[in-house]
Amino acid sequence: SYAMATVWHLAKTHRVSFANTGRSGATTHDVARKQLKEAASYKPDIVLIGVGANDVTHLTRDKTVEEAMKTIVHGLKAASPDVQIIITGAAAMDAIDRFTWPVKRLAYVRVTSLNKTFSRIAEENNLIWAPIADKTRPAFKADPTLFAEDKFHPNARGYALWTAVIIPALEQALVKRP
């Protein structure tokens, strides 16, 4: 997964302690309600938040995502004031080949709208924005072999594309740390 790839990247030059508090199927609200407490308990230096796809599929309102994301940021910073937070936002779900045209269009609209919210929150809170949708959409649209057998999730090559977007954000987080 891209989380492990980022850990391995960090471990090349830093001592790393890693905890994955992510849960499959979680929306941003779920992260705020069910995962934040555990993540904050580690008093992390760097946090990678890969959230948004389930908000797209659940048609979560932008305002609900925004409120949950602000709760997450506040909770992480309260636990560890110097934490560097990287947000990837939702992936380019409109590139999923098994979706028909109207679903692809709706996915594009939702991904774009939610990612504007994530990007704005990142800017307002001095977080790091790693826009996996914008950076990898062309590759996923052009090459359906980047998806796993379920034709929904990325495969190892697809995750490697995400990782290539996340690593520069990770490097930025390392530079910004006090």
Description:
The chain has 178 residues and is mainly alpha-helical. Helix content is 58%, strand content 6%. It contains seven helices and three strands. Strands 1-2-3 form a three-stranded parallel β-sheet, with helices on both faces. β2, α5 and β3 form a beta-alpha-beta unit. α2 packs parallel to α4. The longest helix is centred in the middle third of the chain and has 24 residues. It is globular. The two termini are 28 Å apart.
Keywords:
7 helices; single chain; three-stranded parallel beta sheet; 3 strands; mainly alpha; 178 residues
Q: Gist?
A:
With about 180 residues, the chain is mainly alpha-helical. It is built from 7 helices and 3 strands.
